[in-house]
User: Fold this.
Amino acid sequence: MAGMSDLAHAFIADLEHAEDRELAPALVETAGELALSMRNRGLETSQKTSVSDVVTEADTAAEKFVADVLAA
Assistant:
């Protein structure tokens, strides 16, 4: 679990014995809260494939959080 955020470690520890039906909504809610808190502080944007395909630091962080938890 190297490279995993403290948030991902805490999430996994808190829901270690949860069933999938409990895990999925909690995972989505936590990722959304992470993205919202980052957006409220202001953030950088970049483009994926074109100028109209914008991705923010919050998008990237939320995606990494979900991927880290699912990979654990």
Notes: The chain has three helices and two strands. The chain has one domain: 1-71.
